[in-house]
Prior knowledge:
- By secondary structure, this protein is an all-alpha fold.
- The protein has one domain (3-140).
- It has helices at residues 3-19, 27-47, 52-74, 79-85, 92-103, 107-140.
- The termini are far apart.
- The mean pLDDT is 92.
Amino acid sequence: MSWTALYASFFATMGFGVLFNVPRKTLLPIGLVGMIGWMIYVGLTLNLQINLITATLIASFSIATLSQILARRFKMPVTVFSIAGIIPLVPGGMAYDTLRQFIENNYMESVRLGSITLLIAGSIAFGLIFSSVITETFSQRKVFPKSD
């Protein structure tokens, strides 16, 4: 894992935070959330050879859980942290390659890449939802008490 990729994920996440007009005091934590999520994703795919969909699911779950913690710490909505933090995992390049293959009449490759793109997008959504459900379940049991 290169330092350049970590820095890029940090600043890209912060850039989307600026684009989404989040409060200034949350820009550094938002950047860290995106960087940590990317670090988990790359660590799982490169070091442990876990497939892309599973690694994306685990990384998005981690991002959403960290976002829940930071939202309570900063007394802000979870979406302030999770939406910008999930940006490094979004399969935009793969979606582009899917359409490029389709335009070049490579339909089988287009279908293959499109299927992977949809599975990655689904795993991002499932990771975010699963984290929310787990956090709400434990906060109702007073394991993670909500701050007032």
